[in-house]
Amino acid sequence: MASVGFIGLGNMGAPMMRNLLKAGHAVRAFDLSDAARKAAADAGAAACATAADAAREADVVVSMLPAGSHVRAVMLGEAGTFAAARKGTLFIDSSTIDVATARLLSGEAEAAGHAMVDAPVSGGVGGAEAGTLTFMVGGHDAAFEWARPFLEAMGKTIVHAGGPGNGQAAKICNNMLLGISMIGTCEAFALAEKLGLDAQKLFDIASKSSGQCWSMTTYCPVPGPVPTSPANRDYKAGFTAAMMLKDLKLAVEAAGVAGAAVPLGGEAAQLYSMMVGGGEGGLDFSAIIHLLRGRA
Ligand code: NAD
């Protein structure tokens, strides 16, 4: 069993960390929040005073932080985890961050004598608790194989997406498609309402026709057709609109750097921006149907 440093004990990080403890690893945990550190200690981890302390003795360091700026602040510089860790430590960053930062950090890790993978997740808080997350992993082959057993302690599906940054690339491409397909699905259901077509009838037909997609058949944005979807519980997230907006912005930013045209991704970002600006950022992202019906 290994010594694992864990940095970022929020909604996702705390249950992921607990699954590493369950797998028998010794965890040294750090978060800026006192309450999060205390909860980690109660769960059986050693609470550390700084991120560098969590990394110093570790074989592997996992991070689950809000954005690229936080990950850079934690890892780089004299007080950062790259400087503090023993040479030859494996860094696994599971935060959703921009591709450019993920690639920069991978290079900095190697320059400091470490290995690194970017390993963002899908599956949400439920998946983090159940240990069923999907990990999309970017990094060199050896680093991926090294990371695999740790990822398997926290997730069910582990996919090697290619070299450094490709885990983040996979995540934002998937979520951009999801954001666009959800808006399309909501438009179809909102139009059906205006045309007097029953939502269940549209579902029965479109879910067996060429309009079929996950946003409809698993996560239907109107109550009824898919009883487990957030629409049936007043759009309690789920995956919040604010998080969808974050991922869409990352996709549009990456497309700008790469010279890729993402007109619908850009439009989706604008629509989610309106939803979040209208005060619905904490609702599930499928609640964008309110905006499309004209009543946010
Ligand atoms: P969160 O806000 O609940 O947790 C982030 C934690 O990081 C907080 O506890 C915060 O105190 C801590 N933190 C911030 N800066 C820090 C620093 N410098 N040092 C140490 N700790 C610091 O966020 P979350 O929902 O756990 O999400 C984490 C990441 O996972 C994000 O990148 C998010 O986009 C991604 N993600 C979240 C979900 C989800 O459903 N919540 C799903 C997929 C991916």
In short:
Helix content is 52%, strand content 14%. It is α/β, with parallel strands linked by helices. It folds into two domains: 3-162, Rossmann fold (3-Layer(aba) Sandwich); 169-292, Orthogonal Bundle (N-(1-d-carboxylethyl)-l-norvaline Dehydrogenase, domain 2), CATH 1.10.1040.10.
Radius of gyration: 20 Å
* Annotated CATH architecture of the largest domain: 3-Layer(aba) Sandwich
Main β sheet profile: 6 strands, parallel
Q: pLDDT under 50 segments (min length 5)?
A: none
Bound molecules: nicotinamide-adenine-dinucleotide
Q: Into which percent range does the helicity of residues fall?
A: 40-55%
Placed side by side, the strands forming the largest sheet appear as 3-2-1-4-5-6
Overall 3D geometry? elongated
Average pLDDT, rounded to a whole number, is: 97
What does it look like?
- The chain is of the alpha/beta class.
- It has 2 domains: 3-162, NAD(P)-binding Rossmann-like Domain (Rossmann fold, 3-Layer(aba) Sandwich); 169-292, N-(1-d-carboxylethyl)-l-norvaline Dehydrogenase, domain 2.
- The protein has helices at residues 13-22, 34-43, 51-56, 68-75, 81-84, 99-111, 124-130, 141-152, 166-195, 199-206, 214-217, 241-258, 263-280, 288-292; strands spanning 3-7, 26-30, 46-47, 60-63, 90-93, 115-118, 121-122, 133-138, 155-162.
- Helix 9 (166-195) packs across helix 13 (263-280) and helix 12 runs antiparallel to helix 13 (263-280).
- The chain binds nicotinamide-adenine-dinucleotide.
